[in-house]
């Protein structure tokens, strides 16, 4: 395979320098309203000597807010005196999507979490992914990527890691999830892991931790509190920030199979029959989809294919065929 060209992204920060630096990952993007212009992705580096490196991201999807809220805050507040090692913070990873308030980039429709390993000569989204793949991920020991449901899903607040073939790597990830202390902790299964940032980090042998902390295209007071406390807990757990982990009770959940997910088979108006966090029996109707084109038609019933609790639900009132309607989790011992 021919060698890849260098990334077009230039950081305005020095990842090896001690202290606090607020700067940019500058990505040239020449366009109608800005000849020779650039996308300026905010980055903060807080370093104090040798030690582990944490890479923290929010805004992988541009309409999810707990991560950016917690990370802009952390970048402002974290004192290098309390740090051993390096904390790299990119609070809005897909910055064009974040500025537009959309899941994917308005420039190229790129879904950051399906764009890995990216390309240095690809679209704007692929160039950002490539920079993470080849420049930032290799620096990191622990990688934390915040997600929430965005405009089309809502979740019970959970921190998560994946079951992995390397059990030592998996154990470290689940220990970091436990330290985060969200109300729920998830052993996660993906429906489509190809191209994900998660997969890129895990294949590099990194400890990768993520969240789903709510959704609906906004944030809640509780979920933002969970995010702020949780990320400090993970940094303390990793020995990068001093102080003790502030433990809170967490309920572990499992996603044992694809039966966790339910999808709409018709367009219509959704009626949730169960609220987030409530228990669900096998065969129970979790949602109904009402056809709206004419009166007199029965709603489509979405039935659970396993017992569990409702971990996620479709958010806005209208659904289209193929939309994810619900995700169930199964309560297990930690
Ligand atoms: Zn997301």
From TrEMBL:
This is N(2)-acetyl-L-2,4-diaminobutanoate deacetylase DoeB. Pfam families: AstE_AspA_cat (PF24827). Transmembrane segments: none annotated. Its cofactor is Zn(2+). It comes from the Bacteria. InterPro entries: AstE_AspA_cat (IPR055438), DoeB (IPR014336), N-alpha-Ac-DABA-like (IPR043795), N-alpha-Ac-DABA_deacetylase (IPR053138). GO terms for molecular function: hydrolase activity. Residues 51-237 form the Succinylglutamate desuccinylase/Aspartoacylase catalytic domain. It is an enzyme of class 3 (hydrolase). Keywords: Hydrolase, Metal-binding, Zinc. Its EC number is 3.5.1.125. NCBIfam families: ectoine_eutE.
């Amino acid at each position: 395979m021919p060698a890849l060209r260098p990334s077009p992204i230039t950081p305005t920060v020095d990842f090896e320098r001690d202290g606090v630096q607020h700067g940019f990952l500058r990505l040239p993007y020449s366009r109608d309203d800005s000849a020779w212009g650039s996308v300026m992705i905010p980055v903060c580096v807080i370093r104090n000597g040798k030690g582990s490196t944490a890479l923290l991201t929010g805004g992988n999807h541009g309409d999810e807010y707990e991560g950016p809220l917690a990370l802009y805050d952390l970048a402002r507040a974290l004192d290098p005196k309390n740090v051993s090692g390096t904390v790299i913070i990119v609070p809005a990873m897909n910055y064009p999507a974040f500025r537009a308030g959309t899941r994917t980039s308005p420039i190229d429709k790129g879904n950051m979490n399906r764009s890995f390993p990216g390309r240095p000569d690809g679209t704007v989204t692929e160039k950002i992914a490539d920079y993470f793949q080849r420049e930032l991920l290799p620096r990191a020991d622990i990688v934390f990527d915040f997600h929430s449901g965005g405009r089309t899903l809502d979740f019970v607040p959970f921190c998560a890691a994946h079951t992995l073939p390397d059990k030592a790597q998996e154990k470290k990830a689940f220990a970091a999830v436990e330290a985060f202390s969200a109300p729920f902790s998830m052993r996660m299964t993906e429906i489509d892991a190809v191209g994900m940032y998660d997969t890129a980090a895990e294949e590099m042998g990194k400890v990768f931790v993520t969240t789903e902390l709510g959704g609906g295209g906004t944030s809640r007071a509780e979920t933002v509190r969970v995010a702020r406390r949780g990320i400090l807990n993970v940094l303390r757990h990793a020995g990068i920030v001093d102080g003790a982990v502030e433990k809170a009770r967490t309920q572990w959940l499992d996603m044992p199979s694809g039966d966790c997910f339910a999808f709409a088979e018709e367009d219509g108006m959704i009626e949730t029959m169960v609220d987030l966090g409530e228990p669900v029996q096998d065969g129970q109707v979790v949602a109904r989809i009402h056809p709206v084109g004419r009166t007199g038609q029965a709603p489509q019933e979405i039935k659970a294919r396993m017992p569990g609790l409702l971990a996620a639900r479709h958010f806005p009132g209208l659904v289209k065929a193929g939309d994810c309607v619900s995700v169930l989790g199964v309560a297990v011992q930690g």
